Amino acid sequence: MIELDDVLVTAFSPDPAGDADRVVRLLGPVRLRLTERRIAVIGANGSGKSTLARLLNGLVLPASGSVRVDGLDTAVDGRAVRRRVGFVFTNPDAQIVMPTPLEDVALSLRRLPLTADERDAAARAALARFGLADRAEVPAHVLSGGQRQLLALASVLAVEPAILVCDEPTTLLDLRWRTVVDDLLDGLDQQVVVVTHDLDAAARADRVLVVDDGRIVHDGEPVEAIAHYRALMTALRA
């Protein structure tokens, strides 16, 4: 279970007048218990969605309050939290670091007590799971955008995290690859939290959080949450 208790995230911002930097609120206060299998987070650009996502595995730490994953505090037990919570970025190039898909997945597996042969076999099995078996030893940069996102997912999921957090994983993909990734996420055993602009994908979730101006402004069933978000965006255009 993911628990956020009175979480506030702040940052320093230069003062336009040249005085001391100001403290600005990025997100919060937020109090949540996330237990559902599929949770979507929607909101406008700059609303605080990605900040919320990054809180869940300790990439961002709260200025006050606490974030706990199965009882582990992200500020104290960051390494243990990140073993339980996998994170997928919008742009797979931000997390693909090795020359070939095989090497990239094998790098993730180094944290497990495996021999070199076992690690190679596990990496190939992970790639096969995502339809990349025949791409194992090609240069990663020649993969299509969709294939690179699958590789990013394969590398994260190879170590079997209990929770997967995805920050707009289909934003850079065309419709075909968005469908592939959305279907893949739907079929995972892990609890999945997805930040998305794709309202069709959000509608598949068990629970949807709407974020606006750094606050959770709606939390509930997909139909009502998406309707709230549409009304919010319409009001902003008026």
TrEMBL record:
Keywords: ATP-binding, Nucleotide-binding, Transport. Residues 2-238 form the ABC transporter domain. SMART domains: AAA. It holds the Pfam family ABC_tran. GO terms for cellular component: ATP-binding cassette (ABC) transporter complex. GO terms for molecular function: ATP binding; ATP hydrolysis activity; ATPase-coupled transmembrane transporter activity. Coiled coil: none annotated. InterPro entries: AAA+_ATPase, ABC_transporter-like_ATP-bd, ABC_transporter-like_CS, ABC_transpr_CbiO/EcfA_su, ECF_ABC_transporter_ATP-bd, P-loop_NTPase. The keyword Transport applies. PANTHER family: ENERGY-COUPLING FACTOR TRANSPORTER ATP-BINDING PROTEIN ECFA1, HEAVY METAL TRANSPORTER. Belongs to the ABC transporter superfamily. This is ABC transporter ATP-binding protein. The lineage of its organism: Bacteria, Bacillati, Actinomycetota, Actinomycetes, Micrococcales.
